[in-house]
Amino acid sequence: MLALLAATAWADPDIVFVVADDLDLESTRHLSRLTELVAEPGAVFTDAFVSLSLCCPARATLLTGKYAHNTGVMANKGPDGGFAAFKRDCEKRTIATALDAAGYDTGMFGKYLNGYPENLNRRYIPPGWDTWVVPIGGEPYDEYNYTLSINGRAEKHGEAPEDYLTDVLAAHVQRFLESAGDKPAFAFVAPYAPHSPATVAPRHRGLLGPLVAPRSPNFDEADVSDKPAGVQQRAPLHGKGLASVDRQYRARVASMLAVEDLVQRVVDVQTRRGRLDDTWLVF
Predict the structure, then answer these.
(1) Are 134 and 153 in contact (CB under 8 A)?
(2) pLDDT at 119 exceeding the cut of 90
(3) Phi, psi angle pair for 13, to nearest 5°
(4) Could you confirm whether 55 is annotated as catalytic?
(5) Burial classification of residue 279, based on how many CB atoms lie within 10 Å of its CB (0-12 exposed, 13-18 middle, 19 or more buried)
């Protein structure tokens, strides 16, 4: 789902861009608050086009507005992929540098690009970003036991409930918006949910009950003779295999409940600031 909360004033609106990691359209049917907060009061775009549907190339396109063959980021790693390729050709001209030059207070929160910070000093912050809250080590995909760069200062997080990464990012986004003052704000918010392993926040465990993965007509199809060899060579799902698929699907959706909380905090803080009607909120 791609949705927009339309601002009533076009001059210098606040912009909050939230990018889930690996979220599928079907799962959004179970995220009613996301629909209530963003889609229903705004607009929903039902057609989308992706030139290269891989993580780093897609993020490079979001940051620059360029196709992958123009960014030079064609993969997640290697000479033509990842953060190294983006830094080589793209970092000097991004949405952050453009909005920063236009007087915006800019902030990046969460996943930047695959491979960051690579072999660079972990204090490195790309051009254009006034606030930088990005993982630089550990296991951010697990939501615990990671290290954040807070404007170049390393901050370690462990396994306590308050270390849950999506919540930590939400708190930083809230403080960023609250401190923006009279300057327009641009926040690029990139949680890791629901990417595998799709760790669920403690408060959301068990809330989805018997939710199972969608059983579309091609789910565990009996006759795959017309499918590629890689599909034909896979055995049908049984017992434990089916249970594993359902368990992972449930975890993916449940991990997004914390992202809904994040979006709620954005709406709440902008309401308190009297800026909600002057905010572009894109999910």
Answers:
(1) no
(2) no
(3) -75, 155
(4) yes
(5) buried
Which residue bears the tokens 């993982």? 135
> How many residues in the chain?
283
The residues near 19 (Cβ < 8 Å, ≥ 6 apart) are 59, 62, 110, 111, 188, 189, 190, 191
CB 173 within 8 A of CB 105: no
Spatial distance between the Cα atoms of 262 and 256, rounded to a whole number of angstroms: 10
This prediction has a pTM of 0.93
Paired tokens of 12: 């210098």
47: Cα within 13 Å, side-chain hemisphere: 0
Half-sphere exposure of 119 (CA within 13 A, CB side): 3
Of the chain, the end-to-end C-alpha distance in Å amounts to: 7
For 17, 93, 278, the CA distances from 10, given in Å and listed in that order, are 17, 23, 8
To 10 degrees, the CA torsion angle through 140, 171, 29, 216?
0
Phi, psi of 21 (to 5 degrees): -110, 105
Sequence-separated (6 or more) residues with CB below 8 Å from residue 50: 58
Angle at 188 (CA atoms; ends 263, 85), nearest 5 degrees:
145
Window from 6-10, 82-86, 164-168, 185-189 with minimum mean pLDDT = 6-10
Query: What confidence tens digit (pLDDT) does each residue in 234-262 have?
Result: 999 988 999 999 999 999 999 999 999 99
The active-site residue, picked from 7, 37, 38, 55, is 55
**Residues 19-29 pLDDT 10s:** 999 999 999 99
Distance between CA atoms of residues 22 and 111, nearest Å: 12
Q: Are residues 140 and 117 in contact, defined by beta-carbon separation less than 8 angstroms?
A: no
